[in-house]
Amino acid sequence: MWKSKTLLICTLCLICFSARPQDIDHCEDADKYYSLEDALEEAESCILLDIAMLKLSSISTDIAKLVNLECLDLSFNRFSTLPPEMAQLKKLRVLNLTGTRFLAKVPDVVYQLPALEELDLRDHPEWKGSQLEDAKKKLSNVLVLGDGD
């Protein structure tokens, strides 16, 4: 009996892990900027911006000046929307919106990011589930992470 349970668990794990792209580059080798101001001083070379947990209630439209930005961590902030100018971030591949609980839904600008590969939407218990499912449908070529992932 335990052999069949173990086999079932291993099979389910294999299915789950093989369905996800394992080769998404999260910019680990890039210089990390921890403030938008610092990133703007070297706007052309900024690839990774981590402004998580700063209690930000808004994101400056100046973020659009980071034309080579590939990875952006906005997790655990307090903004309720993202600036439409973010659509100019044509190279943005990884966007972390974990725990941004003031967002009622995925901001429309997210759907305009052509290079997006991964969108992290974990820790949104206030969402009824449809917001996450809508995002997964609209971003069918993007790995969208939710609380069950």
Proportion in helices: 10-25%
Widest beta sheet: strand line-up:
1-2-3-4-5-6
- Global outline: globular
Quick one: CATH class?
Answer: Alpha Beta
Secondary-structure-derived class: alpha/beta
CATH-assigned fold name? Leucine-rich repeat, LRR (right-handed beta-alpha superhelix)
Listing every helix as H and every strand as E from the N terminus to the C terminus, the arrangement reads HEHEEEEHE
At the fourth level of CATH, the homologous superfamily is Ribonuclease Inhibitor
Q: How many beta-strand runs?
A: 6
Instruction: Give the N-to-C terminal Cα separation.
Output: 28 Å
Radius of gyration: 17 Å
Give the name of the CATH architecture.
Answer: Alpha-Beta Horseshoe
Main sheet overview? 6 strands, parallel
Range of strand content: 5-15%
Uncertain parts: 5-22
The pLDDT mean sits at 86
- How many domains? The number is 1
Task: Please give a handful of descriptors for the protein shown.
3 helices; Leucine-rich repeat, LRR (right-handed beta-alpha superhelix); 149 residues
